[in-house]
Request: fold
Amino acid sequence: MTSVEIREIILDILEGIAPDDDLSNLNDEQPFREQLELDSMDFLDIVMELRKRYRIQIPEEDYPQLASMQSTVEYLEPRMKDLQKV
Amino acid sequence: MYDTAIIGAGMSGLAAGIRLAYYDRRVCILERHTTIGGLNSFYRLAGRNYDVGLHAVTNFTPKGTKKGPLARLLRQLRIGWDEFSLTPQVGSRIAFPDATLNFGNGLDLLLAEVDAKFPTERDNFRRMLADIADYDAVQPGMMERSAREFVASHLRDPLLAEMIFCPLMYYGNAREHDMDFGQFCIMFRSIFCEGFARPWAGVRIILKKLVRRFRELGGELRLRAGVQRMDVARDSVTRLVLDDGEEIEAKQVLSSAGWRETMHLCGQTRNSQEAARESGQLSFVECISVLDRQPRELGHDRTIVFFNDSPTFHWRKPESIVDLRSGVICSPNNFQYETPLDEGILRVTNLANYDSWRSLQESEYRLAKLSWYDRVVESAVRFVPDYRSHVVATDMFTPTTVERFTGHENGAVYGAPRKRFDGTTPLKNLFICGTDQGFVGIIGAMVSGITIANQHLLQNH
Ligand SMILES: Cc1cc2nc3c(=O)[nH]c(=O)nc-3n(C[C@H](O)[C@H](O)[C@H](O)COP(=O)(O)OP(=O)(O)OC[C@H]3O[C@@H](n4cnc5c(N)ncnc54)[C@H](O)[C@@H]3O)c2cc1C
Reply:
């Protein structure tokens, strides 16, 4: 999977978590928390969704890597490069 | 073998079920009653739809709000804001003999009212608000400190303090007389900072949405499936046994039946320390009147009126069978709907004594309902226009009704006074959610189910 595809997946997950939010202006470098007001329960959901859809296990100590879109994609790229997008 | 069995299809059990089913757990909700909803259900009587509990959904925030319990639970359940069809209130009132305070959704009106009616409390009230706004920061031990002491440390005028406590206690306080500080902050925000709303068609909209979601995700819901007991080996629940003897196996159990009620199901009786926790004492009677016109046509446009007939508010299990000194008068008509409800309705809620109702024989019980309906309404019309000549149908429920349909001991609507915030029990695969975990009300119960599912049931896989 390419980083562009990974970004789409994350957007799709965020859309599911916050169906009423407008994600079109999301700034990739800025933390999600500042733009979307996600709380810790919602962060858990990003992790859970990745596990549900792609069986990717993310250890708790790596959660901080999921702070922004850019850092998330960078973190996931090596872990998802051999997977097919569904 | 289920991953999780959930006891109770009330708001908390359904919300927890959705979370678990969404993440592919095999989950089954077991409900003793013939229908869903628990303390906030609905029924049909003589051709009319009634709600059991619903006065108003608290914690209402407008579409697009990102903070607060409502926004959070919608995100967690993947439900869009519009799907609960919440319509905001018109406006509510706290009515005491020598003062009234009007309030709406959001703090503006309440602040203006405090300034106008208690001018010397202006700054004190704002300082108190600032403390309430950041109570999250306080240590866990602070949660149970006395809210009365907290309020008294800010407000000089005891009348204002009593007036503020009246709605907060009626809508969510399990403790007599005083209130836990944490619960006070939660209720203050949910009623005054956020606000009230209601779906035009009542609580059934919300419940049906939850059940549909749960089923779509593969969850199993079984009605008429009361859990009669749980078998325990060492420190875990091994199986659940239903009223008809059927046995169910699950790796984990989440119960919304109440703390003591759940401990009893595990065979923990009197002698055990855990089961011996104090039970809840506070219950209600509710008198519902269907009118031949909209309340507005009688000059009544308030959504909810919290009344008390003296300067001091008494929040205790009453000595008499019903406490007529204070109460809540709700009109489901007075929300900002596009089309009015078909009929006018007024609901009056008062504190009631469970033991007194329990001790009545069947025929005495019926008679008591009739005579107390009259007295309740007579006491309510001191605070709203007299609607008695417009009543076309009535219904009434008592503490024993609450107990019969929800299994909550003493008909205690808000459960036991001491809560179990982390949801754990002495058994390592048994957790509790809902009323006795600590969050009450419709929104609170759903948040409770979600929180406990996230903390204990989703992580360890
Ligand atoms: C009169 C009244 C008015 C209210 N008004 C409002 C209001 O206006 N706004 C608001 O927000 N909240 C209101 N509430 C409060 C709100 O209804 C409750 O706080 C909330 O519904 C509690 O949900 P719960 O899931 O914790 O518990 P419950 O709804 O009690 O759910 C527990 C479920 O477990 C089932 N059960 C128990 N034991 C067993 C067993 N052994 N086996 C199988 N099933 C079992 C019960 O049948 C029940 O369905 C009101 C409550 C009442 C009674």
